[in-house]
Write a structure and sequence with these properties.
The chain is built from 27 helices and 29 strands. It is of the alpha/beta class. Helix 23 links the parallel strand 26 and strand 27. The N terminus is likely disordered. The longest helix is centred in the middle third of the chain and has 21 residues. The protein has an eight-stranded mixed beta sheet with strand order 1-2-4-3-5-8-6-7. A six-stranded mixed beta sheet has the order 18-24-19-23-20-25, covered by helices on one side. Strands 16-11-15-12-17 form a five-stranded antiparallel beta sheet, with helices on one face. The radius of gyration is 29 Å and the shape is globular. It is 37% helix and 15% strand. The structure holds zinc ion. Zinc ion (ZN) binds next to loops.
Length: 799
């Protein structure tokens, strides 16, 4: 059976190339004088605290009473959030939603989050909403909200121009920068719920926006003065709505099994924040594009896992390509929050001992990788909006970085979570406002030092030579860099530097540009010190190696003097079709480009053979696997049928009048299925993304289809089983068949579940042994079963 599998596998080598690539991957000026900042600390004496209260606008006593009621202990509260100002014309969240933020029993759908922000926008000049560039994979809007004083919001475009100028110091002098820093605003961007089971931040952010817009305490006024707060209400829009669905199902079906959050976004689950290198998800691209539009000073990603509030610095080793200033900024902000929260008597606010800071695969690298500050919180979240008795394990241990640890047992509420997040982020925003010039100056300095990189630490440039095998993949790689704001040039003529020559048309990524660090980070080789602690995430990610694209690190600075042209649009390789007076065949060399598979499926009605050995024809050499499209095998105007798809593919189809004798076989157009379980769908999502991108058609089937289809070969030629965690037994058995059925399907209570990639009346049970036998028969019938990683290990044993 193994031999059969191996023989069949060879027919799908190019498909695997695509899979491997994927797997490794988942792997403007208005003169307004700003007053000089006076103090680096927010008010905090009894007198100052009293001053906060007396200067405050009238408060909504009823709201404050609810907040108090929903907080389990007085020390999970601060004076920053124990009240909410009242307003006759601007609605607080409860006026629109019908409940106070953090009230038990309520998680808010994105449509209602957006409804609230749009009501705020209608009623106050201090709030504006924008829609992110791309819709979610399931067609939903992602919102961006800006909150600041009236003047800042009215002149937001102007302030964006200032941060854009500071982001690219090549166009300004230090004196101009100084003036821009004085005039500019710091942009503090809070991003909610990228992780759908971490449900508190979308609730908290509504109250934060209201408070920032309405409250007239000196503390909040100080924030509005120097900071524009940007809010992404919920980053993973599809996942947020499905999470609210499952919670509502729980409430509507007491005592019944609740569906786990099988699908978050359309494709992936928790690893949606590990898409910072691939930018395969709409949410990643939206963050990147939004960053490049606003150049926020800080991007703050809100997570919920460890108690009670972990504020990020990481343990190191730190990413070696970052300007070390940002490491200091992480610490500066974290320790300010810890000190201020601790002064207020709040336990369990700490830093350091969680996550390292090495890999740039995280979403917040849209900031860290671009000379800004990327940071995150982990607060304690219950996932559901119910108050629960919780046990704290390792984090209740006192340590040098956690001198005031969380208690080992705690009654925890959604409102506690809201209090922690909102208090701490307000402290950070106030600190940034009070130190606005300092943060903007650091941003400018980091940007400047990135431009100086070429002549300081180097290299001078990275070159992606034009004379390489995978030119389509090379273009795709430089387009990814461009998506990240990296400037890419093409050589106007041959480049000749010390010991190296590169042909005209080669891509040149200069290191004398603002985002040189991001480019160098992605193209360089990583050396993770074996003596360092086990990494939190990936150790290496070199893009050239991952994509099998030749990249050359050039240290000779004369490369920067070579004539080159800036790419102003994405690189595109257009395929060519050569002619012959009476062609016998068109040959497309197998150069392992991913576009070969796209072309084959686009030309599914053509008979295409694959060479089984290298050969020469028409004076050129061709690799084994070369596509042979014979005129005698295919009717009609072959040239006309080929020209469009070949042009799109970036490949070269060469007409030859004579073909040598060679071994070949006809290529199948396999009916492919991607198989998923109902226990874990994340990994198959990464596969689906790449199949969709490469336009390879497939059926998406569950283990229950395997169980219920005795003749799988009748329907499929290839079944791909992406990695699922667990033992063979747990993969085969699936979710235990106990209690009531667990549906994963659209209903009045769960409308968003119906928008996802698959549905079932009952997700329990797995493929069962019957499914295993059906798979065995499928293979015996000549089907190709491709289990991957642990599925391969476990299933080769079973079959
Ligand atoms: Zn998270």
């Amino acid at each position: 059976m193994n031999a059969k599998l191996i023989r069949r596998l060879s027919a799908f080598a190019l498909l695997l190339t695509a899979l491997l690539t994927l797997w490794q991957f988942s792997a403007a000026v208005h003169a307004q004088k700003t007053e000089k900042v006076k103090t680096a600390h927010p008010p905090w004496s009894a007198d100052q605290k009293a001053a906060v209260k007396t200067e405050a606008s009238p408060n909504n006593a009823e709201y404050a009473a609810k907040v108090k009621e929903n907080t389990t202990e007085p020390y999970f509260m601060t004076e920053l959030v124990d009240h909410l100002p009242a307003s006759d014309k601007i609605p607080s969240p409860d006026k629109i939603l019908g409940y106070t933020v953090g009230a038990p029993g309520h998680l808010t759908y994105t449509k209602d989050l957006y409804r609230y922000y749009r009501e705020l926008e209608k009623t106050t000049p201090r709030v504006r909403t924008f829609v992110a560039p791309e819709k979610s994979e399931e067609g939903k809007e992602q919102l961006l909200v800006a909150v600041g004083d009236e003047d800042s919001i009215a002149k937001l475009d102007h302030y964006k121009t200032i941060t854009a100028k500071l982001a690219d110091p090549r166009g300004i002098t230090d004196a101009e920068a100084e003036q821009l820093i004085g005039e500019g605003k710091a942009l503090y961007w809070a991003s909610g719920s990228i992780h759908s089971t971490e449900t508190g931040s979308p609730e908290m952010l509504m109250e934060l926006a209201y408070r920032l817009a309405v409250e007239e305490t000196p503390f909040i006024k100080a924030i509005r003065k120097n900071v524009v707060v940007l809010i992404t209400p919920a980053l993973e829009v599809d996942g947020r709505d499905r999470m609210v669905d499952t919670y509502n199902y729980r409430k509507a079906n007491p005592g019944k099994n609740v569906p786990p959050l099988v699908y978050w976004g359309h494709y992936v689950a928790h690893d949606n924040n590990r898409d910072g290198l691939g930018m395969a998800l709409a949410l990643s691209r939206n963050q990147m594009k939004t960053f490049l539009e606003y150049h926020p000073t800080i991007l703050h990603d809100l997570h919920e896992s460890v108690p009670f509030l972990y504020t990020s610095t990481g343990t190191g080793p730190y990413n070696a390509w970052l300007d070390p200033i940002v490491i200091d900024e992480w610490n500066l902000l974290a320790y300010h929050e810890i000190e201020e929260m601790t002064k207020r008597g709040v336990p369990g606010v700490w830093t350091h001992g969680f996550y390292d800071g090495w890999a740039p695969n995280y979403m917040f690298y849209v900031a860290n990788g671009h000379n800004s500050i990327g940071r995150f919180y982990e607060t304690f979240g219950n996932s559901v909006a119910d108050t629960l008795d919780r046990t704290v394990r390792a984090e209740s241990q006192r340590d040098w970085f956690r001198p005031n640890p969380p208690q080992p047992r705690v009654k925890w509420s959604l409102r506690n979570n809201v209090n922690m997040q909102e208090s701490a982020i307000l402290l950070a925003m106030n600190f940034v406002s009070n130190n606005k010039d300092r943060f903007l100056k650091n941003f400018y300095l980091k940007s400047k030092r990135s431009v100086a990189k070429a002549t300081n630490e180097g290299p001078a440039a990275w070159v992606v030579p034009s004379d390489q095998t995978r030119v389509v993949e090379a273009a795709d790689m430089v387009n990814l860099l461009r998506l990240m704001g990296v400037e890419v040039h093409t050589a106007n003529k041959e480049i000749s530097v010390k010991d190296q020559k590169f042909p005209a048309g080669s891509y040149v990524i200069r290191m004398d540009q603002p985002y040189s660090r991001m480019a160098d980070m992605l193209l360089d080789t990583q050396y993770y010190n074996v003596n360092d602690p086990r990494p939190y995430d990936d150790t290496g990610w070199t893009l050239g190696a991952l994509r099998n694209v030749k990249t050359i690190r050039v240290t000779d600075k004369t490369v920067l003097q070579m004539p080159m042209t800036l790419l102003t649009r994405d690189a595109k390789v257009t395929g060519t079709l050569s002619t012959a007076s009476s062609p016998t065949a068109y040959l497309i060399n197998h150069n392992a480009e991913n576009s070969l598979v796209t072309l084959r499926f686009k030309l599914k009605d053509l008979k295409i053979a694959a060479a089984e050995e290298p050969f020469e024809a028409g004076g050129q050499t061709f690799n084994a696997g070369t596509f042979i499209i014979k005129t005698s095998d295919n009717s009609g105007d072959l040239k006309a049928r080929l020209s469009g798809p070949v042009a799109d593919s970036g490949l070269k189809a060469i007409a030859v009048e004579k073909l040598p004798e060679l071994k070949s076989h006809l290529l199948a157009v396999p009916r492919i299925a991607i198989l998923h379980t109902w226990t874990n769908t994340q990994n198959d999502g990464w596969f689906r993304i790449e199949f969709d991108r490469l336009q390879v058609p497939y059926s998406y089937i569950s283990d229950q289809v395997i169980r219920d289809t005795p003749n799988l070969k009748e329907k499929f030629d290839v079944i791909i089983f992406p990695p699922v965690a667990g033992s063979a037994q747990s993969i085969v058995s699936g979710i235990p068949v106990r209690g009531a059925p667990i549906p994963w399907k659209g209903s009045d209570v769960t409308p968003n579940i119906g928008l996802g990639p698959d549905q079932s009346d009952d997700i329990r049970g797995g493929m069962t042994l019957r499914g295993v036998l059906n798979l065995q028969k499928f293979v015996e019938d000549g089907g190709v079963f491709i289990p991957i990683t642990n599925c391969a290990r476990d299933f080769t044993g079973l079959l």
